Amino acid sequence: MADDDDRTTLFGELMRSTLRSAGRQIEDAKRAYTDARRSALADLPQNDDGKARIVCRRYAERRAVRLDDEARPACFDPDHPDCQGCAEDVREGSVETW
Q1: If pLDDT is split at 50, 70 and 90, which confidence band does 2 have?
Q2: Do 54 and 39 meet the contact criterion of CB atoms below 8 Å apart?
Q3: Which of 21, 35, 43, 87 is the Cys-Cys partner for 50 at CB 3.0 to 4.6 Å?
């Protein structure tokens, strides 16, 4: 009887672990699809994860970033002039990329 209880417990743990892993994979795939779609709509080069490859004006460095629904990089700071200019350039398709 104890063996049956152990098997049931192990099976339950295996199922929970498998379902959690599948859920994470689905969320990762959804995020990658959304990132790639937004980068493609903004006509920007993408990395393997679908993030837009831009050169940050504020910090003068290459970044792979997600774009929001308004084609603004995820690192966008509305109070910083460099970020405002970067967001405008992304919308116009003239942002520096790599």
Answers
A1: low
A2: no
A3: 35
Domain locations along the chain:
2-92
Q: Which of 41, 61, 63 is nearest to 53 (CA)?
A: 63
Residues 29-44 as b or e (16 or more Cβ within 10 Å = b)? eeeeeebbebbeebeb
Report the sign of the C-alpha dihedral through residues 70, 71, 75, 81, in that order.
Answer: negative
- Read off the tokens for 42: 């903004």
